[in-house]
Specification:
mainly alpha, L10-interacting MYB domain-containing protein, single chain, 146 residues
Amino acid sequence: MFGLSSGIVSSSIEKDTQPEDSEDSDIEPESSVINIKRKRKIFTNANTNKKAKKIRGAQKLLCEAVERRSSNKNDILGPSITQAIEELDAILGIDPLGQIFVFATRLFLDKDKRELFIALKHKEVKIAWLMNEKNDQKEKENNLIK
């Protein structure tokens, strides 16, 4: 078949462009145009549905990844400051307005120390560890002053 630029028009194009009252045409041009539009619409809708399914699949994968990350947040990031403060609040004898409590809140800014505090199982050990950390900090400050 020759292209339009060659000056030769294919027979199917000739049929579609013939006037309606032509006797050579079996199909009226209006109905063939409608059929083409219908086919185009069906094809477009089929492609749109496929794209929508692909997008939905991608969204589902993304949602699952976010959920997994959120559920494993403690595994990745370790315990939160809020968790450490809750553990500290649960220890009777530590005054929330006292020096050791305020010291502990600053200490919990360090991820490793916060993790260690949470890992300690006994309240007495937690208190002893906090006191030891406070004393170590005091010694470091005294050595800087000298």
